[in-house]
Structures are given as C-alpha cells and as structure tokens.
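Job type: complex structure
Entries:
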Amino acid sequence: MSLPALPADAISLRVPVESWQGAVRAAGAALTAAGIAEPSYADEMIRMIDEHGPYVVIAPGLALAHARPGPEVLKDGIAVVTLATPINFGHPYNDPVSVVLALAVDSPDAHVALVAELANLFNDSTAITDLTAATTVDEVQRLFGSAP
Amino acid sequence: MKIVAICGAGIGSSGILKVNAERALSRLGIQADVTAVHLATLDADAAGAQIILTSPEFVDSIGKTNADVIVVQNYFDTAELTRKLQEALE
C-alpha cells in the first residue's frame, strides 16, 4: 500500500504556536479540516502526552501525535503541520520539534501498513529537514508521494 | 523469539518501532515475532518477551521484567536500532 492521499486541507505550514499543546491542537485541526477526525481527537492526543510524557517525539525535530482508535476517528489518515518556531515538548533527546505528524486510525491492525510507509519515507532520510523547510503545500504533497 | 514494542496507544510510535525492528532483524538474519503493544495491556502482552523496545518515557512504567529493555532515541535511525538489537542479542 502507499500512504493515504494527503489532501491540502491536512497540511498547515509555519503555524505559530506557543506550546506543545498548541502544536498538537494545530495538528488535530488539520485532521478535522481533512475530515479524518472529530475535533475531540486533539484532546485525546494531548491526553496521551499528559499521561505518558513526550514519547511521541520519536526523532529529532519530529512529533508523531496520535491517540487510540476510537469514535473520534472518522477514517484512517495523517496530517502534517510545520511550526513557525520550534517548540520544546520536554523530550530528553529530540527537542525542539519543528514538524508534527498527526496519525488517526480506525483499528490497530489497519495502521501497520500505514506506519510502514511512514518509515519508508522517514528512515535515514532528509524528510524532516525537507518538511521543516517547505513553504508550499505542493512541496509537502510531493514529499508524501501525494502530488495533485 | 518474542519482541514487543511499547507506546501509550499501541499504534503510531510502537508501530514504527515494530516495522523498523523487523527490518533490522532481517538485516541481522534473526527470526523474531515483533508485536506493537500499549502500556495498559503490557503485562499480558509482554509475557515471555526477550526484548522490550520503547522510548525513555516508558522505562519506569515497565516494571519488573526478565526482558532486555532497549531505549530507542531516534525511531527512524535504522543504524541505531540495528546496533542496539545486536548488542542485546549477543
């Protein structure tokens, strides 16, 4: 499988935020704009970090915000948000964060193929730097193999 | 051999660890069953696991285990993951 189509609505670039909560909310808003999740999914993503710490910062500069599958998820999908200024999530190694990916999936089983594609894109690559530098939605869509 | 990857939700970050651990293990020529799990069901799901893969935040939550706990810093750095798996399996 390839990554699900990344609609322009699911991408927000250079978003000004003042906290990690704001960064996660911006990613939740992009999911909602793209019809992937209800607005309350953002609360769930924030709750995961409140509960478990900033483990979602899985690589230098990148947070993979996500919550468990639930009624807030309308369909499988991802959203991409870049931040106007990098934000600390409190991670011991990978702060500050410039790119937030938000992931929403219907069922735990369905997500493995999707994250495998994310790994293909990000493993040992310049994708995080490229995303941080992106100034247009087109650039981001091309990077995700989702050019219009 | 059984390996589990832990995160708070059992999707997303643990899924990436699972996928990349499978790739690293196949590179090392090692057969293993890698499962993505979340903390709430850890005790049941991690029973008999030889290795637990996770991020620094979850180390304290894992509790008593006979498994080797591997803390991964950069989930997309396959060299880091391969090296740490190799060390644990030696």
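Summary: The interface with chain B takes residues 48, 51-56, 58-60, 62, 64, 66-69, 91-94, 103, 105, 108, 111-112, 114-116, 118-119, 122-125, 128 of chain A (CB under 8 Å). The domain at 8-143 of chain A is CATH 3.40.930.10 (Mannitol-specific EII; Chain A).
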